[in-house]
Amino acid sequence: MKQIKTLVAAFVLLLGASSFVNAQSKVAHIDTQKLISEMPEMIAAQKQLSQLEKTYTADIEAKFTEYQNKIKQYSAEAENQTDATNQARQEEVANMEKEIAKYRDDATKDIAKRREDLIKPLLEKAKVAIEKVAAAQGFDYVVDSTPGGGVIMADGKDLMADVKKELGF
Fold first, then answer.
1. pTM to 2 decimals?
2. CA distance 119 to 153
């Protein structure tokens, strides 16, 4: 009787251990930041954003130069002008300052919006490719191994090469 109990206990332990092994999930990892930064579309988007930033910077610098020239001109002519004229010129200069600040803020917002509009589809494309590769290779979970992203050790399968192949680069 004791042998039967031992045999049943061993069978239950063996069954439990095999269930535990079968319940193990396959986990892979990928550095999504690196993947996205190496996508050809991202490189093109970065160039486009850089060009937009240069355009806005040139416009702001031109407006600022005009502003400085007005200040120099008005300062040099201030003694020969009436108080009313000097007051009007001070208001004009103050309005120019406000316009430059508003233009700078609008430019910053526009660049941020364009960045979001360009990058959002790339993030989605990368996500779809990661999911497709992971499903094809039988992975249950894919962890983002971007440095600082919370993964301490990444010994599992790295999907970077396979996802790049799926994306065509």
1. 0.69
2. 28
Task: List per-block mean pLDDT (blocks of 10 residues) for the chain, which spans 169 residues.
Answer: 45 44 73 93 96 97 96 91 93 96 97 96 93 89 81 66 89
Q: Could you give the number of structural domains in the chain?
A: 1
Q: Which residues of 99-123 are buried (b: 16+ CB within 10 A; e: fewer)?
A: ebeeebeebeeeeeeebeebbeebe
Place of tokens 């430019």: 107
Q: What is the DSSP string of 3-59?
A: HHHHHHHHHHHHHHHHHHHHTPPPEEEE-HHHHHHHSHHHHHHHHHHHHHHHHHHHH
Nearby residues of 84 by Cβ (< 8 Å), 6 or more positions away: none
Residue found by looking up tokens 């103050």 in the block:
94
Q: Can you say whether the dihedral through the CA atoms of 13, 19, 22, 24 is positive or negative?
A: negative
Structure tokens at 132: 């497709």
Q: What is the CATH number of the domain that holds 107?
A: 3.30.910.20
Cα-only R_g, the chain: 32
Instruction: Please give the residue range of the domain that contains residue 25.
Output: 2-167
CA-closest candidate to residue 42, choices 143, 109, 115, 112: 115
Phi, psi of 145 (to 5 degrees): -100, 25
